Amino acid sequence: MQADDYLLIEQYLDGTLAEREKTAFAERLATEPDLAAALREREAMQRYLKFESQKDALAAQMGLLGKQYFGGDSLEHGNAPSEAKVRPIGQRWWVAALAAAAVIALVLLVFNPFAPKSGQQLYAEYATHEPISLTERSNEAPALAAAETAFNQGDYERAYALLKEVPGSPQSQFAQAICAMETERTAEARSLFQELANGSSVYKNYGHWYLALSYLKTEGYEQARAALAEIPKEDDYLFTRAQELLKALP
Amino acid sequence: MNQHPDHQYLLAFRAGDYSKLEELYGSQARTVASWVVQNSGSIADAEDVFQEGVIALCQKAQDESFVLTCPIGALLFSICRNKWLNRLRKNNREAEVRKAQAVQLPHENIVQNDLEAVEEEAIRQQKLDKAFQQLSPLCQKLLRLLSAGATSQEVAEALEMTNANTVYRRKNACIERWRHLFQSAKI
């Protein structure tokens, strides 16, 4: 860094450098980490000023949405939440207990977890998809690798398109079915899950499980119950979840 | 890493368009609220960390070199989660922190890189803010005007300076002061 490099940075950002100076500056950036760091710092300052000018609009929008989605003022200034702030539980345990009761009452008021949840809510709660790994047993397909990445990033539309192109192992069929379900291709998803459920691959029980989830989406609770009932006790993990979900069904 | 389709949210935020925020509230407010409440917080706490999380996201959105590689909802949730864990830590609630951390989240791995980038920027911007607040009112005004796109001539008139040249010199002096304050700031 030289003394007037900061001025050079200003000119570079203002776009007032001549073409030749610009090229020379860019070359120096590549070889002088100090200069590059100073430029990044100056850019962060620019971002600060730009964001500052938008802050009011953002605050206004968050104020509106906060009221709508968090209950807004009544919650912020009501009695219960201030008691419920984080604080160590000391000897005055009953204050904490009261506060906890207040929070529970409040949560019940707002979310009421004991009220029957709709299929959509249950779906959102239970349909958490574990990351998949499609490529370790196959070397043929870059498409599979791309599908795996897309799936694990939650980009189901793209993963669906890619998986449609590859011949199906049970594994990729399973992934494709989840993608179909997540992209509102419910009928197709169901037939794929049904196929897995009828088969004998390791995805058999997942087939039942996901079939049930797909019915939650459309509020077909009877079909969901039937599918959940197919999951055998031996499958500890899914069985537990299935029992839990059965209890939560409206 | 590839750009995630949700990158479009960042582009909107960068342009100062916050109409898409409602979708984020719609998809994440409830999740964050119930997680915070499950982990010893109140709904008001949840709203606090949610707002802080949204601000951190919008700050990072200003960075044109940043590419979102994961679903924005999962990222926002992770930002909020870390913010709440930090508050618990500050209040010496280590046991609750450990309990919360023991639960593996479905998107933990895919959000990791973007999460770090957002959190780094948040710290940087917080330091910049602290330093900026220590500048003279004249410096603050001058830098804001220039950033909003005013010409040197317009700034000279608004701040009653002799000419555009004075504005230019003052600007460089203000920037230098700001930089100095920023570099010596501790957080």
TrEMBL record, chain A:
Parts of the chain that traverse the membrane: 93-111
Keywords: Membrane, Transmembrane, Transmembrane helix
Top-level division of the source organism's lineage: Bacteria
InterPro entries xref list: TPR-like_helical_dom_sf (IPR011990)
Name by which UniProt lists this protein: Tetratricopeptide repeat protein
Organism: Phaeodactylibacter luteus
UniProtKB/TrEMBL annotation, chain B:
Ranges of residues in domain RNA polymerase sigma-70 region: 25-93
Any GO molecular function: sigma factor activity
Gene3D superfamilies cross-referenced by the UniProt entry: 1.10.1740.10, Winged helix-like DNA-binding domain superfamily/Winged helix DNA-binding domain (1.10.10.10)
Highest taxon above the source species: Bacteria
Single GO BP term: DNA-templated transcription initiation
Keywords, alphabetical: DNA-binding, Sigma factor, Transcription, Transcription regulation
Pfam families: Sigma70_r2
Transcription in keyword set: yes
Name of this chain's protein: Sigma-70 family RNA polymerase sigma factor
Gene source species: Phaeodactylibacter luteus
